[in-house]
Amino acid sequence: MIRFHLDGRSGVSPYMQLKQQVRHALRLGLLREGDQLPTVKDVVAQLAINPNTVLKAYRELEHDGLIAARPGLGTFVTRTLTDTSLSAHAPLRRELERWMAKARSAGLDDESIEALFMTTFRAGAQEDIA
């Protein structure tokens, strides 16, 4: 089961963070069709947030056709977002972990690593468009 977390410094609204975390888990195969999401009550207790925040995230995911609420049973994944073989993820993850270790040993903190990664990612995406 997915365990949510919130980053108050991200500038991204809490409901959107929850939504992104579910989408990432679906894309990486961490959540599969039929898996149950935590109840709204459990997420509220874990994160100390308003129930409407969780409900909004779940409602939008349901609108996207990714999850479905079953009254009295819970909320379940109805489809995934995996677009490549999951076997490709493990070696790429190990390579990324090695890169992050190098970045840390070079003295970069988490925020600097994230900034470097995101600017490089965005620049690569722009090159793909051009």
TrEMBL record:
GO terms for molecular function: DNA binding; DNA-binding transcription factor activity. The lineage of its organism: Bacteria, Bacillati, Actinomycetota, Actinomycetes, Streptosporangiales. This is GntR family transcriptional regulator. Pfam families: GntR. Residues 12-80 form the HTH gntR-type domain. PROSITE patterns: HTH_GNTR. PANTHER family: GNTR-FAMILY TRANSCRIPTIONAL REGULATOR, HTH-TYPE TRANSCRIPTIONAL REPRESSOR YTRA. Keywords: DNA-binding, Transcription, Transcription regulation. InterPro entries: Tscrpt_reg_HTH_GntR, WH-like_DNA-bd_sf, WH_DNA-bd_sf. Coiled coil: none annotated. It comes from the Bacteria.
